[in-house]
Amino acid sequence: MTEDSPLNADSDPPWRRPPRDHFAGLPAWGALTESLRQESFGVSRLERVSAEWAWGGADGTGVRVAILDSGVDGSHPMIPRLERSVGVVASEGGQFSVEDCEPVDTAGHGTACAGLISSIAPAAALTSVRVLTNGRNGTGAGLLAGLEWAIDQNFDVINLSLSTGKPQFCLALHDLADRAYFRRCVLVASAHNMPVPSYPWRFASVISVASHDEEDSSVYYYNPAPPVDFFARGMRVEVAWRGGKTSRSTGNSFAAPHITGICARILSKHPLLTPFQLKSVLYLAASNVAQRPGGDYDGQ
Amino acid sequence: MNCAHCDAVLAADARFCSRCGNPTISPGAPRESRRTVTILFMDLVESTALGARFDPEAMRQILDRYRWAARSCVEAHGGATEKFIGDAVMAVFGAEVSHEDDALRAVRTALDTLAKVSELNVDLMSSHRVALEVRSGICSGEVMATINPGGDVWTVGGPNNIAARLQTLAKPGQILVDQVTASLVKASVALEPTGLLQVKGIPEPLPAWRVVGLKLGQDLITDSPAVPLIGRDDDLDGLHSAYQRVQRRNRPSLVTVLGDPGIGKSRLIRDFVASLLPGATVLTGRCSAYGRGITYKPLAEMLNGYGGGWASVATAIEPGGAEARRATDCLSGIALDNPDLAGEPTGIEEISWSVRYLLGQLSRTSPVIMIWEDLHLAEPTLLDMVDDVISWLTDVPVMLICVSRSDLLETRPTWGRGQFSSWTLELSPLSLAQCAELVAELAVREEVTAHQQEAICERVVADCEGNPLFVEQMLDLFAETGPGRRVPATISAVLTARLDQLSVDERRLLEVASVIGREFCGTTLTALLTADRVSVRQAEEILAQLVRRRFLVRVSSDSFRFEQLLMHENAYQCSPKATRERLHLLLAAQLARLLGDGGGDGDFGVQDPMVLVHHVEGAIFLRRELRPGSADLPELASQTAAILISEGTKALHRRDLPGAAALLDRARRLISADDERQIQLMLYISDCLSMREPAQAIEALLADDPEPRFDIVARIQRSLLELRMGTAPPEAFARIADQIECDLADTAENDRAWCRLYQLKAHLNLVADRYATAQANFQLALERARRLRDGHEEDRLLVGICEIAPYSPIDVASGLRLCAEMSERFSTNRALLVPVLLPKAVLSALGDDLAGARAALSEAVAHTSDLHLPADLYDVLIMGITALVDSLAGEYRLAAAGYRRARDLLLELGRAPQAAPYTAYLARALFDQGAPEAAERALRQLRSETRKPDPRTEVIATSLEARLAARAGRLKHAVELAAGSAALSEQADDLCLQGNSYLDLAIVAKQAGQPETARQAGATAIDRYRAKGATRLIAAAGRALDGNDR
Predict the structure, then answer these.
(1) Is A136 in contact with B449 (Cβ distance < 8 A)?
(2) Do A107 and B457 touch (CB under 8 A)?
(3) Strand A137-138 relative to strand B448-450: parallel, antiparallel, unpaired?
(4) What whole-number distance in Å separates Cα of residue B844 and Cα of residue B838?
(5) Which of B817, B879, B850 is nearest to B1033 (CA)?
(6) Which of A48, B7, B646, B753 is the most buried (most CB within 10 A)?
């Protein structure tokens, strides 16, 4: 682990504090709302949600995004200055730690995702967390270590254009995804490209993204048929690639960063949105929902 | 078939030709075929030393025994000993008929020979005090194989040499195999890589593997228990229901599982057995294609594979008295591989009875499942026995599972019929989705993977058509070598073995059909067979037979398709290249004739010229492989090139640039280096590339090595591109242009060079803002293009003339007429229409028709987005022109925003030099909008970023500086600046630009109290506007001169 200061219990908002003591005489997790004055907390209200309301004029300022991937090439012309670049490192006992590293990407995949996020939310602060340590592949333990670190570092959005199909990591990933959800750390995860079970994109606590087949990066759709939440551009996308080049690539990998970028813009305008509100805003502003007032399925 | 002597067509069963009387097949005719074989070389170590040590007679005895050992091993595994070279043995596997395990047979032969030689050594040590050592090399690959009437085999091909070299590199007792052999046998043979070996005569080092030994209990289909069984739930359920019926009713049942090789039969049975609750007795035996005592080998495997081996089977039967003893005696002969143990040969009835007795005994305690793998390889005797067992067994819980390819039904069409509780399960290919799932499971072996789509996976899903074995083998191959066009050797072995089961006629027909394509018309096939003078008896019937055997699918009454893509490719690869070349050319000739007749609908079907191209290119490709030194092209090549040029030019018109470049490049390969069309193609390809990536186009021209007489055109084109890229100052290119103009004779054959030279000159003039001269250059180029009858070039030039119309001295009315004419010409080709609509918009605005200007613009925008024209190219143009129209309309705020977007886009695209004018326009629009501070900032930015702007930018910037100076009260300086700008604008010939700078001079002169200068400058401005016919500017100038400066 790095030496970042632990959360301060006094200044941290309720969702980032350690669990509080239980109230005596009340079932666990309950609250004495009658007798104790409730703590005030900030609210971003959902009023007339439209794309303009959601992210119009916003550029991601003040939002911290982590890209859990193959690393990000910091010298690529399409990549803005990175806030930080770290990577998971295996120790001898098979444990993983997160350490600072050079902003490099031998696979190109993480650079592609970072470039897409930055093209949508240019002012968002990007951090590369290298968890794919073998080209475009990595280990389950490395992913868990990197994700846990990113959640503890209070990133606002974490982009996961990857997954594991190994059931042994499912439970631990599920716990981390829930922890992120409660800490208001939004996980945007791309669906697998093949019809196979894998995680974490299938969890309800994350925002899962697959590809539509349009060549418009600004269009995304809500998917009424789970498990995928949204469709964004993922076919033949022009992306930043290794060696300062660009490449035309396809895959759900490239759909997720589009939604990550939009999330960053929404949060920069409405910083107090919770993950469940954010998903609602995405839903309400989606091209197939926002542009259909009183939509076809209303009341049917 | 045709007579070898007089070429007459022979009757199907003729033994002598009815025309010339010669025998139809001379007994001495060798058979030749192109095929994949495995070559095995074995040699004695240090035989020279042996020769020196022993008397020749003794040496001869030793060698004879060694040769006999080697040859008997080769023959036992179905190989042919091609020759003995000294003490070396060369054997070939698969020369006459391919088996899917030819490579494995070669490895087994080498191992057996080693074992035999070490047995031999025991004798030789006592008799001669010598021990022999052998080393071996094995290589698989394509050869031309000739089988002489006596059965002698002669093969020619690279694998022979490589096998011999590997053998010399092997250490005593070692067997080295090449990469293809390794991939073919790795499921059954333990191998160790030796690293790269430098082989004499082969430039690249070769990877090789050392044989460690056979893996036990492995079959051809590799085991991947980690991958779940996909898409077989229903089949598995069916097997479970059958088993439950056997248990419940206490009755025997016969289940036959049929399917193509690799479809997953064995895997299904393995998973079925693994999913059973404990309690069932499972006996498994596999039939083999060759070997000693193969008839009852599967039964022997079952008896020995029973928990505890034969001894415990015997114990399980024993307590039953005399009958039990009889059964034990009979079966022990089979289990111990000696059927005649009891003295008299055991009859098949006796064996069948013994098996029934055994099943009766074993099933007393638990149900028995008897699995017969590869039953299509079984000897008829064994099939009879299995049939007999199931017919006569009653009231015992026994399930017989027969696993077989569909070939079983060829030899036993009634298999399984008429039996109680008999069920045949035919495994079908996986669906696309199931195949994708399997690919995902196999391809993703890592714990965590990124979600970038892998093209390889899609390709495997598409090509393997639901065959799980092929999926696995293709992924394995691609993981090692990257995706290639060839069928992997492992799959090819399976497919070729299937092809070799066909009759001569069936196979020939498939090979000929494969040249036509994966889908073909029966009539085309017969016409081609006739044209190739091949008589195939009853082609109709053979086609029907091939459909029945699942090689082909009938698409409609007369059209067929190879059921498997890989089978199509394999059949094509298996026929000799010379035959394929001949057939491609025959097809091409027929098609060319039909196309010449107007593309009729004859025996060769409805004609698509690109099919002709495919066949001619196929023939040329094969010709280059067969005769690499020969540069000659078939007769049809030129005609084919014309088709490609026509298609390529169409694509170019459609603005499908990559498609056009590819088609035209293919055309270049079909014409000789000195063909006149080479130069036209070079230019067209360069145009395609330069519209997207000028740097790449320059690279392509540099890499090109044209004929000397075409070289000058290449130089002109390179200069044109480099001028546009700004790689050197324009003066350098002007010198080149002048030099070429001096050297180039003005003859018709140089028209193309002149046409491009005038274009180079036009662009040089455009850079210097000399539009009138540029337009004249374009006109001259146009004349040449018309003389060349080159529509593409003509269109390009007409568009060029239109594009400069707003800036050239041509007046607004004539310009609009030109645009209207061109709009008409390009009405069906909107990609060319857009560059005409843009100048039309500017000219309309200048002529005070703002509505017309806006209409032209919105039409251009709609076409651009409809046609998906390259955004980077057109967006900037449209943004710039829209801003110009906005500015003419007095909408300066909109204009400023437009110019800013265009500039930013250019900067984003890394085209800073082209962005400079837009910064100047932006500054001017900001000033006109009433934001002088912002204008000043933009101007400062321009000055800091651009050291030497082009004349136009300089004029605009200086005029604006004059206006800003006047505003700041530095009136004298302002007049000087404005006068300088006006003088500079005279060097260019853009009337509006001149008018604008004179107008600015008039305004600042008026402010500076110099009315005379102001009046003269104002009059000049109006004159220039009038010459252009820019009525809107005349009106605006009048207002500006009458009123006060803002």
Answers:
(1) yes
(2) no
(3) antiparallel
(4) 10
(5) B850
(6) B753
Are A211 and A251 contacting, i.e. CB atoms less than 8 angstroms apart? Answer: yes
Instruction: At B721, give phi and psi (nearest 5°).
Output: -70, -40
As a whole number of angstroms, the distance between CA B585 and CA B639 comes to: 13
Please indicate whether, in this complex, the C-beta atoms of A137 and B451 are within 8 angstroms of each other. Answer: no
The alpha-carbon radius of gyration of chain B (Å, integer) is: 42
CA distance B663 to chain A (A): 22
**Cβ separation B451–A252 shorter than 8 A:** yes
Q: How far apart are CA A128 and CA A102, in angstroms?
A: 10
8 Å CB contact of A190 and B451: yes
Task: Please answer yes or no on whether B450 and A107 come within 8 Å at the CB atom.
Answer: yes
- In the block, tokens 């239980």 appear at A22
Question: Which site among A132, A192, A193 would you substitute to test the B interface, given the most B Cβ atoms closer than 10 Å to its Cβ?
Answer: A193
Residue pointed to by tokens 């260019």: B988
Partners of B444 on chain A (C-beta within 8 Å) are 165, 194, 196
Report residue B708 as tokens.
């000397």
Instruction: Note down pLDDT in tens along chain A; length 300 residues.
Output: 333 334 444 567 777 777 767 666 667 676 666 676 667 777 666 668 889 999 999 999 999 999 999 999 999 999 999 999 999 998 877 789 999 999 999 889 999 999 999 999 999 999 999 999 888 889 999 999 999 999 999 999 999 999 998 889 999 999 999 999 999 999 999 998 877 789 999 999 999 999 988 888 888 998 888 888 999 998 889 999 888 888 888 889 999 999 999 999 999 999 999 999 999 999 999 888 876 544 333 333
Lookup: tokens for A231: 């469709």
Residue A132 has its nearest CB partner, among B440, B448, B454, at B448
Out of A143, A163, A195, closest to residue B451 by CB: A163
Tokens of B445: 């072996």
- The verdict on A133 touching B (C-beta cutoff 8 Å) is no
The angle subtended at Cα B123 by Cα B118 and Cα B124, nearest 5°, is 85
- List all residues 6 or more positions away from A288 whose beta carbon is below 8 Å from its beta carbon: A221, A222, A295
Tell me if B226 sits within 8 A of B373, measured CB to CB: no
User: Which of B444, B446, B452 is most worth mutating to test chain A (most A CB atoms within 10 A of its CB)?
Assistant: B452
* B861 interfacial to chain A (CB closer than 8 Å): no
Residues B450, A134: C-beta atoms closer than 8 Å: no
In whole angstroms, give the CA distance from residue B518 to residue B188.
33
Asked if residues A188 and A254 have their Cβ atoms less than 8 Å apart, the reply is: no
* Distances in whole angstroms, Cα of residue B9 to Cα of each of B29, B578, B590, B637, B751: 18, 22, 21, 31, 56
Q: What are phi and psi of B40, to 5 degrees?
A: -120, 125
Contacts of B635 (CB under 8 A, 6+ apart): none
ipTM above 0.95, yes or no: no
Q: Is B450 on the interface with A (CB under 8 A)?
A: yes
B450/A164 touch (CB, cutoff 8 Å), yes or no: no
Distance, CA of B471 to CA of B487 (rounded, Å): 12
Contact B452 A139 (CB under 8 A): no
CA A270 – CA A265 distance, rounded (Å): 9
Nearest to A127 by CA among A107, A149, A97, A108: A149
pLDDT digits over B984-1002, tens only?
A: 999 888 999 999 999 999 9
- Contact with chain B for residue A220, Cβ under 8 A: no
CA distance B282 to B266: 14
Q: What residues of A are in contact with residue B453 (Cβ under 8 Å)?
A: 193, 249-253
Q: B644: closest CA among B669, B624, B625?
A: B669
Residue numbers in A near B447 (CB within 8 A): 137-140, 143, 164, 166, 169
